[in-house]
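Hi F.,

I've been meaning to write this up properly since the lab meeting, where we talked about keeping a consistent format for the predictions we share between groups. The idea is simple: the sequence comes first, exactly as it goes in, then the structure tokens exactly as they come out, then a line or two of notes. No screenshots and no reformatting. I'm using this chain as the first example so we have something concrete to point to.
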Amino acid sequence: MILTSFYKFLSTRTPALCSAIYPDPLPQQHALPAISLEDDGAREELLLDSSPQSLKEALVTVLCWSESILTADALATRVHDALVGYIGPFGDVEARQISQETRTRGPENETGLNSIAIQFNIHFI
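Output, unedited:
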């Protein structure tokens, strides 16, 4: 569920920035620059109680891909700016807090592409 929300949110905020957004790992046939999403074992644990409005938490990694590290880095910065601190409708959920956990960069060994990976922690209802 949370990957779908990330996909919907980024699709409306980054279309001019990248050629494609993939709600799964980067496929073999892909356009560049691109964004792909990974579920980091997204914990949708109830933090307050078991009511439908209780706060949940998930970890998601957004990967920004390009042949150029500068392009991947610029895309990652725009994704970060669109997400961190955002509160409000977020795809199928309501975001209460989004924070950056980690940011790593480097060439991806299998494809030779450059990537920036940002892990986000989202609290939502």
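Notes:
The CA atoms of residues 35 and 64 lie 5 Å apart.
The first helix runs from residue 2 to 13.

If this format works for you, I'll send the rest the same way.

G.
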